[in-house]
Specification:
This protein has 407 residues and is of the alpha+beta class. Helices cover 34% and strands 32% of the residues.
């Protein structure tokens, strides 16, 4: 039968549009169904939400033709410092310390605000991808040779493949019968941006406290993004505080190494959990990003994991199409699952273990953790291996887009 598009992507956040651009650039017909209006995140409204884009993710954006526009709005992460400690007592004696100058490829990553990345993806889709903002998929049915589904405005559309990029509560996955496994951490992330007196020099800090980690991530200028995890009850109480009281609680945890701090925008909070789909694919349907795996933000790898999915799925689909294969067939989609599932699951469980290891005040573990960080910092080959992992350069095999190469 005649289908409306080669691929329909349900989800217009970041992974969905990135995948759409990669596929459309290879000549495939793509539509993105976006539950939010196109004006949901205006590029002129600072709200402090930002991502730590790994080097490999930056290469993907370069391959899509977006990085030259985004680079001036980003902040290179030149150094990473990690330490454990108690609020008000400063960092412990042992640090993990990474310097981007130690790897040839350049900075391990860049901080980029959500508003700029979303706006660039949205603009790039115009004229290349059919974008349906403010619409939702309400039903789907797999038929021989295609998948058909209906939108909330009553329209029925068909495609050879449906991709779910619609988050942890993925309707695509649910309707396909794909179940999830996982657990909550009993933690909530408090997210905000702060202005500070002193320059950060491109350094990202990760403090591990008994109640949860605090990340201080450099933004352009004397400004940083914070991702601060606390037990749910504590986080709710902190989130309910007025701005000045919020800062009073934050300051002992933040420290004074950047001078006086003040809030630079609104505050947000998100419950934290691990959520892994039992399968990334069924016939005619594939999942990417949080629809496939939701991980703890302790290393800022959520979006990077999603973009790894994007790169791998795009390569599998495009190569299959060029060979004349059915891009929605089970054997084609299984190549994507074999490529991505182990990596994403291993990283998710690894971040789970790190969070459990550090979110306590056990004196024996505290000593062991400190010695471990000191050992990694003291051994250059081990230190560089950790940096390459953080930069996304250890993915094997490396998708072409993550190497900065066209499909």
């Amino acid at each position: 039968m005649t289908v409306d598009h080669d691929i329909i992507i349900a989800g217009g956040g970041l992974n969905g549009p990135a995948l759409a651009l990669a596929l459309a650039g290879a000549g495939l017909s793509v539509a993105v169904i976006d539950a939010r209006p196109a004006t949901a995140r205006a590029a002129d409204d600072f709200d402090g939400r930002a991502y730590a884009l790994a080097l490999a993710s930056r290469r993907l954006l370069t391959a899509l033709g977006l990085w030259s526009e985004l680079a001036p709005k980003s902040q290179a992460i030149l150094k990473v410092e990690a330490a454990q400690g108690q609020p008000g007592e400063g960092a412990g004696p042992f640090h993990l310390s990474f310097d981007s100058a130690e790897i040839e490829e350049g900075p391990v990553g860049h901080m980029l605000e959500d508003r700029f990345l979303y706006a660039a993806l949205l603009a790039a889709m115009q004229g290349k991808v059919t974008h349906l903002p403010g619409r939702q998929v309400t039903g789907q049915a797999v038929q021989p040779g295609h998948v058909g589904f209906t939108l909330d405005d009553g329209r029925t559309v068909t495609a050879r493949l449906l991709v779910g990029a619609d988050g942890r509560g993925s309707g695509v996955a649910s309707r396909a019968g794909i179940k999830r496994r996982g657990w909550g951490y009993g933690q909530t992330a408090l997210v905000a941006a702060v202005d500070h007196e002193r320059p950060h020099h491109g350094t990202a800090w990760q403090y591990f406290t008994p109640s949860g980690p605090l990340a201080i991530l450099p933004l352009p200028g004397n400004r940083s993004s914070i991702v601060w995890s606390e037990p749910d009850d504590t986080a709710r109480a902190i989130a309910a505080l007025r701005d000045d009281a919020f800062l009073d609680v934050l300051r002992p945890r933040f420290g004074d190494f950047l001078g006086a701090i003040s809030l630079a925008g609104p505050r947000f909070s998100y419950p934290l959990s691990l959520s892994l789909a039992d399968s990334y694919v069924v016939p005619r349907i594939a999942l990417v990003g949080d629809a496939a795996h939701g991980v703890h933000p302790i290393a800022g790898q959520g979006l990077n994991l999603g973009l790894r999915d994007v790169a791998a799925l795009a390569e599998v689909i495009v190569d299959a199409a060029r060979r004349g294969e059915d891009i929605g067939a089970a054997d084609v989609l299984d190549r994507y699952q074999r490529w991505r599932r182990f990596d994403a699951t291993a990283l998710g469980l690894g971040m789970d273990s790190v969070n459990r290891l550090f979110s306590n005040d056990n004196p024996v573990l505290r000593t062991t953790r400190g010695l471990g960080m000191g050992v990694v910092t003291a051994i250059p080959p081990l230190r560089r291996a950790f940096m390459r992992q953080a930069a996304g350069l250890s993915v094997a095999p490396m998708p072409r887009l993550l190497a900065g190469q066209p499909l």
